[in-house]
Design brief:
This protein is mainly alpha-helical. Helices cover 48% and strands 6% of the residues. The protein contains 6 helices and 2 strands. It is globular.
Length: 143
Amino acid sequence: MTIGRRTVLRGLALPLAWTVGMGAARAFWRREVDVLVVGAGGAGLAAAVAAAEEGASVLVLEKEEAIGGNTLRASGLFNAADPERQGPMGVEDSVAWHAEQTLESGGGRNDPDVVRRFAEEALPTIHWLEGMGIRFLPETQTT
């Protein structure tokens, strides 16, 4: 049996409405934040850090026992055109090639503007992560 997101949300609607109606939510929730992030995967944690860097108070909620989300499944790989690292290894790459490969692998289902932006921001994102202390291994994989 497959349970979709909408089924789960419908199942939560009545208990949540009852809780809010009874005032229990006000008794439980005693914190106000500027930014509420739902999900502590790579994107959620990046959003939380970016908001905090701008001075916002942030709360991150995660449904799982451990943080990481689907980012854990990426096995530590990060796709980006990085001539500084790839050049000495004999890898020829570019933002345009990264975008082209991503569009091709999407089988025409992805938005070309979003993919181009994704490819353009990949290397600056690596630099941002490294600026916060993340270390990437020097090895590279080519596809």
